[in-house]
Amino acid sequence: MIHQIDLGGRSIALATDGDVTRRDGKVYVCAAHLSLLHDMRGGEVYRTGQTSWSPSGWQRLADPPLRVANPVRRRTADDDLWDDPTRHHSSWVAVVEDAGPVGEKPAGEVVPDRPSAVLVGCLEGETPRVRVDEAALEAFTETGRPGRWVILVGSATQVMTAYARQLGAYQGRREIRPQSVWCSWYSYYEGVSEEAVAAEIPEVARCGFSTLQIDDGWQAGVGDWHAGPRFPSGMKAVADAVWEADMTPGLWVAPFIALPGSRAVREHPEAFVRAADGSLAVAGSNWGSHYHALDMTHPRAQDLVYEVTDRVVHEWGFSYLKLDFLNAAAVPGVRAQDTDREQAYREGLRLVRQAAGEDVFLLGSGALLMPSVGVLDAVRVGPDVAPMWDNYATDDPSDATARNALRASASRLWLGEVIGVDPDVAFFRHRRNLLDDTQMLWLRELAAACRFRCVSDRTAWLEEAEKKALRTWVTREEEVELLGRYRFRVGGREVDLTEAVEGSASPYPL
Question: Is the pLDDT of residue 106 over 50?
Fold first, then answer.
């Protein structure tokens, strides 16, 4: 059925067999599929990928879609099943905007985004996807069962923040708690040790951080979540030492995955998602191997995840968990129960929350963004950062570079309306760092806008002036207001990251 709708001064042709209602200047659709025609052939489209690491941002409708081209990397960093090399495609929500001139900005006056954007977003649904071309926008659920959608018209900033609020009303929302975190990853990587953490604790505390988080490398193996040989005193002793320094201890863990040789895979193969041929499904690649995903509809998988979370929080004493590679729980495959794969992911998160308790801070990395709302406290909103702006050897938008991380994170600032947003670390060190001062400032300003100030600089690498600047930055609390695509007001000053996001890339990290 074709519906002709006038919304915000814009006429929309909507095709759907579902129920259509209009309320408070919004159009709601309950359907498994809908299409709408748009007259913005020369405009731009906003896409957000399925996971933390997926490319996100604006692209001209006439240009190729923003995507991860390498299929092996795409399996890890985005949703390979619905990848489209020709049409723009997005997870849960997409925005189309006219390409008219913004106009001159009078001195001291903030000009809002062009009031000519149309958003279609899912509020409840089973793996919702959106495809867009120069004539139409198509939205659907993977399972073919009806979902709840909203259509909004206004400026891009207005419709995206309004959608975030609507999503929170449907999915639930948790209080957003600003964070200041020192993380071991970008200094120690997998070589982190009990000795190294002990040396960092007093210095990190003096810098004013509220949380010290130990990253990948502490464990016996991925899937075998016990202290490895570099932590001979065990993880409880380390957590106790962090508490004694008046900080919250944090720990990295990837509760939904296991490497092929892990004890979990050897002893409980029935607990993992299967491929159509009966073999264990491959959920992604890292650590020089592929890895498998626990089937969060299987009772044994649920037990394993609950036991790990309970041990880390209630036996060892960690109250901040960085949960990584979470998207594996939504890998396509055969599960014990015939459940939508994104719903299986959300049920896995709920189990972690139940085991951890309401007060433990849960950060998701590699997380499915919209299905995490209401369960996790925060999500990473970009790929891994790195102490270089670009990498001449890759054009993959999900690879670890500061530019990729900033672009995706700045494009997802609107999610801060409904869940904490983590743009990954900022840098203060100049040692072992190829970023210039402007690029480092961009990362710091973005982190301030996200209210998630995280640093991974080894304190021994910092000069006294750098430590002083770090202490001032970490302990600062500032109000944030989103003004446009890449513009925001933080602490009374206006910040514009347009050059950082849209500026031309350098082929070398200089």
Answer: no
Express each pLDDT in 123-171 by its tens digit: 999 999 999 999 999 999 999 999 999 999 999 999 999 999 999 999 9
Q: Are 466 and 426 in contact (CB under 8 A)?
A: no
Length of the chain: 510
| Residue whose C-alpha is closest to residue 196's, from 184, 206, 178, 207 | 184
Q: How far apart are CA 293 and CA 280, in angstroms?
A: 8
Rg (Cα) of the chain, in Å, rounded? 22
146, 17 contact by CB (below 8 A)? no
Burial degree of 300 (CB within 10 A; 0-12, 13-18, 19+): middle
Contacts of residue 87, defined as CB under 8 A and 6 or more positions apart, other chains included, come to: 65, 131, 132, 133
Q: Which residue in 209, 110, 117 sits closest to 155, CA to CA?
A: 117
- Output the six-digit token pair for 463: 């000069």
Contact 39, 136 (CB under 8 A): no
* Angle at alpha carbon of residue 407, lines to 484 and 325, rounded to 5°: 120
Identify residue 33 by its one-letter amino acid code.
H
Ramachandran class of 25: left when φ > 0, alpha when ψ lies in -120 to 50, beta otherwise: left
